[in-house]
């Protein structure tokens, strides 16, 4: 999965829209963009699957597709809103 080029300022702007600390996006060396919330879900069996370029799926521990996104950053952002019943 290819990382998109994004500045710290852009991440800060996105993080201002995320209502809880565990959903905030940060850079993890050797992994790339992530959040504490994603790390918890992936530890429980969730997967980030790149179906084709530009289509990333959130797949839960039961193998069900929960949502799709067009980049890892939008995946992490959308994850928060799907889970809190938003966008």
Give the arrangement of secondary structure elements.
Blueprint: H1 8-17, E1 25-28, E2 32-35, H2 36-43, E3 47-52, E4 55-59, E5 65-69, H3 72-83
Task: List key phrases describing it.
87 residues, alpha+beta, three-stranded antiparallel sheet, two-stranded antiparallel sheet, 3 helices
Q: How would you describe this structure to a colleague?
A:
Helix content is about 35%, strand content about 30%. It has 3 helices and 5 strands; from the N terminus they run αββαβββα. The strands form 2 sheets. A 3-stranded antiparallel sheet has the order 3-4-5, covered by helices on one side. It has a two-stranded antiparallel sheet with strand order 1-2. The longest helix has 12 residues, at about 70-85.
In round numbers, the mean pLDDT is 90
Task: Compute the CA-based radius of gyration.
Answer: 12 Å
Percentage of helical residues?
A: 25-40%
Give helix and strand order, one letter per element, not per position: HEEHEEEH
Q: Give the neighbour order of strands across the main sheet.
A: 3-4-5
- Identify low-pLDDT runs: none
Structural class: alpha+beta
Approximately what portion of the residues adopt beta-strand conformation? Answer: 25-35%
- State the major sheet: 3 strands, antiparallel
Shape: globular
Please provide the count of β strands: 5
Number of helices: 3
């Amino acid at each position: 999965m290819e990382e998109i080029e994004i500045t710290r300022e852009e991440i800060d702007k996105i993080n201002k829209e995320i209502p809880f600390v565990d959903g905030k996006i940060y850079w993890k060396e050797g992994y790339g963009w992530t959040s504490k919330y994603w790390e918890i879900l992936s530890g429980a069996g969730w997967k980030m699957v790149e179906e084709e370029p530009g289509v990333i799926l959130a797949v839960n521990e039961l193998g069900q597709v929960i949502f799709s996104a067009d980049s890892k950053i939008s995946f992490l952002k959308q994850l928060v809103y799907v889970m809190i019943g938003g966008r």
